[in-house]
Design brief:
With 321 residues, the chain is of the alpha/beta class. The protein is 31% helix and 24% strand. The chain is built from eleven helices and twelve strands. The strands form two sheets. Strands 6-7-8-3-9-10-12-11 form an eight-stranded mixed sheet, sandwiched between helices.
Length: 321
Amino acid sequence: MSGPLLQIDGLHIAFGSRSVWRDVVRGVDLRVSAGEVVGLVGESGSGKSLTALSVMGLLPLGAKVSSGRILFDGTELVGMRDGAMNKLRGRDIGMIFQDPLSALNPAIPVGKQIVDSLRTHASMTRRAAEARVVELLDLVGINQPAERARAYAHELSGGMRQRVMTALAVSSNPKLLIADEPTTALDVTVQAQVIGMLDRIRRDLGIAVLFISHNLDLVASICDRVSVMYAGRVVESGAVEPLFDAPRHPYTRQLLRCVPRLDGGTGPMPTIPGLPPRFGSVLPGCAFTPRCVVSQARCSAQAPPMRRESGHLSVCWEGVP
């Protein structure tokens, strides 16, 4: 393979029905190379999860890819038939969903769910799959894996359910793992354990990861590159260290300003004033203008230019004559 493992070009996702459709994801470009970890960050509602679900072919009812393309390992995913997509999901692309309690079947032991996936995607015998389940649960750091395989999802803690979801997602050794807010609702200590486990597994198995989060500290700890989304668009992207050290888009600077710091004193935590635009709003200029501290008159009327320098992309009028 000569190009990226995952290549998204000009992706637009719309919500609607019949003849009325409104774009909520607007022209997203994204690349993930083999073995790379790419972060996708932004506030809730920025379009991160929708972008991930479009890769999996799992957009909710009333949503569709209105334009653009999604290439995985050189194969176009947009418009792919359900049968072909079902073979791809789980075998070549794994996904860790935000809420493992909702994603796991409450009526089936967690081990059997992994067995079923292995038998479907890896064509294993039942005995071989059951042995592999114990290996996978041990790989993700679950003690007494044979016993835990017989447990139901509600009998496990939040951190253990997330580990089971990870074992399920990597069971067929996929080329790409999409981790959609994998530490939501977990305490800080368990978050660090889950992220450490993810990083170790993806290195051991050589898996590329698209890591979706609003936690910038976690993104900095695991990702090679990061893309920042606002109101359905990528407004800045680049290597993690240069982007975090010298962010070029006002939104990225505001996000980083809101990260809690141990030396920040006892004052109130900084926040970004205002709210993101409503889904489907018509946005002729920059969507961040009403909340931006450096906005200009042209920001609300004209789409900002895209500037790329040394692999660092920003979409903003700031600094443009």
